[in-house]
Amino acid sequence: MISVEDAILAVKNHSKPLLKETIKPVVKAGGYILFKDINSPINMPPFRQSAMDGYALNLHDSLSYNLIDEIKAGDGHQPILEPGDAVRIFTGAPVPDSANAIMMQEKVRVNGKEITIEQHIPINHNIRPLGEQVKKGAIALKKDTKLTPAAVGYLTSLGITTVSVYKKPLIAIITTGNELVEAGQNLTHGKIYESNSTMLQNALYHLKFYDISIHKIEDDYEKTKAKLESVIQDNDLVIVTGGISVGDYDFVGKALLELKTEVIFYKVKQKPGKPLFFGKKDDTLIFALPGNPAAALTCFYVYVNIALQKMMNREIIELPRVKAISKSNFEKKGDRPQFLKAIYNTDEVEILEGQNSSMLQTFALSNALVFVPETIVKIEKKDTVEVILLPA
């Protein structure tokens, strides 16, 4: 049995960036990482632009100007201003080539076709120069930049419609168990609704991984082996839930061994999630998670998330860990380190009731996990504890 720390290190060491390129529409590229530099196809702004509502001036010695025209955002005409002329102008509108400053409207007195400004202003005052954000041909965003909503908006403002990004992994989720039925079906005696696939799929969606297939198999060895062989061949990451323990109908481990999967570790000294398997076959990573939902989700956040972030070549690959003051008492049974469902709020954390590995109700309320190492047996109120912050 491997320790939590060694298991995390093993996942880090055996997870590699995919480093594969794919082309995505900019509008659907949020959360992806740029595969190569992007050069701007235009100057931005593409013309001298008014920074505010006011009056564009051709400066002269007097504070009085002749008002000769008006320019709104989107207008394309270019009035010619002689020294002493002014045009009404609005934020974002193109500044005429013959104008060399803009006075904000609050500092202008208007009398018919004559305006008077409060004070002299310097050349180019309140004018956004051509290419102020980025020049045509210059690098707009560098390779390995994460495409945030702001980055997507920026690229769209440059007229860019597609981008080259790192390909995200193809992911398969396999659930096992004769007792499982889909929500919406009749629940007969001995059956339970299958929730792990929906739970893990949504956890992946939350982390912006969308190329996911769902597979469900009965407790049959040959069917288990055939399905594993197929999905391992077709995916970059395979997540199995259930069937990894040592029961008479737990066939996942045996099938993986027969398929010559490299076993990196099996069983972690932790609670919940002791029967966790991590391995690989060729370039495909394989996690077999416990069937109990809370255990499966805990293992996903602590281990699978690391593999996913490494595959995307990201620098930050673990969920944030912080220190917090416990608002709860807790006494650990046994010597295994534990991950406790909890609510974190401003440097304080409350350990929740209902820590059983089969219970999702408590997890549904949680935004954090309190990590209790092997050396700690009891937590008392006001103790400082380590907290893993779950994705918001």
TrEMBL record:
Q: Which InterPro entries match?
A: MoaB/Mog-like_dom_sf (IPR036425), MoaB/Mog_dom (IPR001453), MoCF_biosynth_CS (IPR008284), MoeA-like (IPR038987), MoeA_C_domain_IV (IPR005111), MoeA_C_domain_IV_sf (IPR036688), MoeA_linker/N (IPR005110), MoeA_linker/N_sf (IPR036135)
- EC numbers, comma separated: 2.10.1.1
The alphabetized UniProt keywords are: Magnesium, Membrane, Metal-binding, Molybdenum, Molybdenum cofactor biosynthesis, Transferase, Transmembrane, Transmembrane helix
Query: Which Gene Ontology terms of cellular component type are present?
Result: cytosol
Query: What cofactor does this one take?
Result: Mg(2+)
What residue intervals traverse the membrane?
Answer: 285-304
**Residues in MoaB/Mog domain copies:** 172-310
Catalysed reactions listed for this entry:
adenylyl-molybdopterin + molybdate = Mo-molybdopterin + AMP + H(+)
GO process terms (BP): Mo-molybdopterin cofactor biosynthetic process
Q: Which Pfam families match?
A: MoCF_biosynth (PF00994), MoeA_C (PF03454), MoeA_N (PF03453)
A molecular function (GO) held by this record is: molybdopterin molybdotransferase activity
Going by the record, the broad EC class of this enzyme is: transferase
Q: In which pathway does it act?
A: Cofactor biosynthesis; molybdopterin biosynthesis
Family per record: Belongs to the MoeA family.
The free-text function statement in the UniProt record for this protein reads: Catalyzes the insertion of molybdate into adenylated molybdopterin with the concomitant release of AMP.
Note the PANTHER family from the entry: GEPHYRIN, MOLYBDOPTERIN BIOSYNTHESIS PROTEIN
NCBIfam families in the record: Glp_gephyrin, molyb_syn
Name listed for the protein in its UniProt record: Molybdopterin molybdenumtransferase
Which species is this record about?
Answer: Flavivirga aquatica
UniProt lineage: Bacteria, Pseudomonadati, Bacteroidota, Flavobacteriia, Flavobacteriales
